[in-house]
Amino acid sequence: MGNFTAKLAPALLLAAATLGGCAVTMPEKEIATLSEVEPGSVLVVGAVEVVPPLRPGEKQLDIPNDIFGMEEMISNRAWLTIGSSPATPIDKGEVTINPELGQTYFFAVPKDAPYMVGGYVMIDYQHIQNTMVRDRRISIPGTLRLDIRPDDEAIYVGTIRVKRDDFNEVIDAALVDDYQHAAAEFKKRFGTEARLRKAMFQTTASR
Predict the structure, then answer these.
(1) Tens-digit pLDDT profile for residues 119-162
(2) In angstroms, what CA-CA distances link 207 with 77, 86, 204?
(3) Residue 36 covered by a domain
(4) With a threshold of 0.85, does the pTM exceed it?
(5) Residue 33: how many CB atoms within 10 A of its CB?
(6) Is 53 a domain residue?
(7) Residue 206 located in a structural domain
(8) E-strand spans in the chain?
(9) Domain count, the chain
(10) Could you list the residue range(s) of the whole structural domain that residue 70 is in?
(11) What gap in Å lies between CA 42 and CA 39, rounded to an integer?
(12) Is residue 135 a part of any domain in this protein?
């Protein structure tokens, strides 16, 4: 386990219909088979945890006209932005992923977009008649670099563990090595022929 120091990234915008016309890249679909990983991409395996975990009923999400299914996408999930540069704006990354909290995730990202520039966990949101009524989020630190090699098929990046206080401010962030558990999940999903290389997130200078 290791602590990492990084600038807390501002929150992502949600979607055009949700936040009054401000568009953002919709999250990638989680990978079920390795054939879904396109050439030039790598399968990234890891997890995101919030400590203490979200309590039942703690999230208050009110998204009217939810034609994109955003409530399901942000319920008990993190949103992380992947970009080609550590200076990539949090709402303009090449890829957005939304892993379920506390679960091993499997997402494909472009090899030429090797930075996780930040993200958030939404806990309280209400939008009524083009007016933001409530918007509270737990920020996820960035910027972290993906250690991608040209021949990588799949890499394990670690668990981002974010500790919050009673006001949902981040008081500590750590990168946890849970490779054995993730490798077992990887083997269960993709079989024994695929190779998962341990390549923990690397810290970069604050933006």
Answers:
(1) 999 887 666 556 556 667 899 988 899 999 999 999 999 999 99
(2) 25, 7, 9
(3) no
(4) no
(5) 9
(6) yes
(7) no
(8) 2-3, 41-51, 60-62, 79-83, 95-97, 105-110, 115-128, 131-140, 144-145, 154-164, 170-176, 197-198, 202-203
(9) 1
(10) 2-31+41-201
(11) 8
(12) yes
